Structure formats: structure tokens, C-alpha cells
């Protein structure tokens, strides 16, 4: 296995490592739309992060204010709230359909793929549709055991309106 990263101009979305990463991102989107939060949580390793920053330019997630900055403990707590039904957001959660596309590989090694993509999420609740648009970055840790063992080491959701008043979602982005 090589650990040298291919440069962005040398990377094709047809690269089998990139295809594995894209398939994991699509699997994540499908789990979220089905509200299978327990299975979704298992896509992340213990050291993984799920981040929704406010500042559209920041890379210092630990040092800036975020809408969401979840490590394993916070993901566990968030999923518990979503599945136990005690949180009003979980009881009256919107139905969602998301499309993730426009995949651009940033870097690729045999151990990790970093992908940028676009997500459009339509949420339907109480007779109303809302649109949530975001640029995503996934850092996918590839497993030597094969695609079923690949994990999302980091997901960053940069909402296009992150600096505006954003309503409570009642679902995961």
C-alpha cells in the first residue's frame, strides 16, 4: 500500500478508492433520510468528527463556535435524543430527501480519501418544504478489510446560509 497522496489534478472520480468513498457518502445520506441514526453513528470511528461550522472559512473547528461539533460522545448523545423520542425535534421530525453530488476528490491515498461535494436537502414538515444547501467535505478512512469497514473520519457541513439565523432542524445534516 502506498501512502503518497495523489494531487488534485491527478485524481479521477473513477479511481476505485474514490468510488469507495463516494459510495460511503451515499450510504450515509440514505441512512440519514431513513432516520437510521444508530446505523449512521456506526459509520464514524471513535476519533471521528461531525461538524457544522458557522464561519464558512474556518478550519479551526475546535477553536471557533460551531452549530455542531460532535465527537463520539456528542454523537452518542445526539443519536440518543433523536431515537428515544423525548426531544420535540425527534417527535415532530421532518421527512427528508437529500441529494449529494458534484464530487471533487481533494486527496487520495490507499488509507484515506478527502472528498468535497454539494448537498441539497429537502425537508418536509407540517405541510411546508424547506431547502438546506451545503458544501460538504468528507474525510473517509479506507479499511484494508474492504468497503464495509470504511469509516467517516470527519464530515464538515458548510451551510450556504451558516451566518444567518438557521432554524432548528430536527434532523441531521
Automatic annotation (TrEMBL):
Transmembrane annotation, as ranges: none
Keyword annotations of the record: Oxidoreductase
InterPro entries documented for this protein: NTF2-like_dom_sf (IPR032710), Rng_hydr_dOase-bsu (IPR000391)
GO molecular function: oxidoreductase activity
Any one Gene Ontology BP term: 3-phenylpropionate catabolic process
Family recorded in the similarity comment: Belongs to the bacterial ring-hydroxylating dioxygenase beta subunit family.
Name of the protein in its database record: Aromatic-ring-hydroxylating dioxygenase subunit beta
Organism field: Amycolatopsis rhizosphaerae
Amino acid at each position: 500500500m502506498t501512502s503518497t497522496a495523489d494531487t488534485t489534478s491527478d485524481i479521477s472520480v473513477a479511481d476505485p478508492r474514490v468510488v469507495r468513498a463516494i459510495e460511503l457518502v451515499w450510504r450515509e445520506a440514505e441512512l440519514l433520510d431513513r432516520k437510521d441514526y444508530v446505523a449512521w453513528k456506526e459509520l464514524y470511528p471513535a476519533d471521528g468528527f461531525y461538524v457544522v461550522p458557522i464561519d464558512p472559512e474556518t478550519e479551526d473547528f475546535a477553536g471557533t463556535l460551531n452549530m455542531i461539533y460532535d465527537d463520539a460522545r456528542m454523537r452518542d448523545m445526539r443519536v440518543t435524543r433523536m431515537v428515544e423520542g423525548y426531544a420535540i425535534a425527534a417527535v415532530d421530525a421532518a421527512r427528508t430527501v437529500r441529494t449529494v453530488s458534484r464530487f471533487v476528490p481533494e486527496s487520495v491515498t490507499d488509507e484515506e480519501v478527502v472528498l468535497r461535494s454539494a448537498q441539497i436537502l429537502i425537508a418536509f414538515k407540517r405541510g411546508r418544504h424547506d431547502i438546506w444547501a451545503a458544501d460538504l467535505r468528507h474525510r473517509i478512512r479506507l479499511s484494508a478489510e474492504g468497503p464495509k469497514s470504511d469509516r467517516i473520519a470527519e464530515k464538515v457541513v458548510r451551510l450556504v446560509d451558516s451566518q444567518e439565523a438557521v432554524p432548528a432542524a430536527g434532523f441531521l445534516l
